[in-house]
Amino acid sequence: MIIAIDGPAGSGKSTIAREVSRRFGFAKLDTGAMYRSVALTALRRKVDLADENAVAELAQSISITFGAECHGNVSVFVDGQDVSDAIRTPEVDRNVSAAAANAGVRRAMLVPQRLFAEGRDVVAEGRDIGSVVFPHAELKLFLTADPRERARRRVLQRHEGEAVDEGLLSAEIAQTLADIERRDALDSQRAAAPLVCPDDAVRIDSTSFTIEQIVDQIERLIEERR
Ligand code: CDP
After folding, report:
1. Tens digits of per-residue pLDDT, 59-74?
2. Which of 92, 120, 80 is nearest to 33 (CA)?
């Protein structure tokens, strides 16, 4: 069985996919981590993200693999080197949409994404999972949340366990909100596999539900579709 979860930045896809993976034993595929890995490698090798051919070639030449879970996220490796933390910096946040808008990069990612799902139950999250990667997924979810709430969650996640001044926190939330809205616009308006809600997806607004409530709802949907 394949569960496809799509939605904008910070809508809770990773958290929900992780809980679904834990509760029902599905393998979790974080496709955003793959585009982040391409963007990071381009930045590190000083390949201009606007040079579509060069970035597509780079995407074809690297091997992206996943390892055990660490701090709630699966570890990610590029050619065997651990990039799990490096792909989650604000610099990669700002540059990832350019890599993801590149049709050649998307073609390069499609084969490993589909291979990952062969012969096992998978919960995959991203922007084009239900529309392009797994159009025949048994269950498609489109997760949304109020933009301000998404920005707040992202900032709290960044400072987990730290004491942060309220004023600084609200300034960071405002900046993150602007970044998220910019990235959503780029992801939704691009020509190659834009972020869309597939017609056959179940829309879930996570603003006012707990993680547990959402996963309970998904459990009912899984039972219906098995
Ligand atoms: O966690 P967050 O929602 O911030 O982002 P992510 O899921 O890690 O995805 C990072 C970026 O990768 C997105 O902003 C998209 O530009 C791109 N992406 C994509 O184009 N297609 C996917 N299936 C997954 C991510």
Report:
1. 999 999 999 887 777 8
2. 92
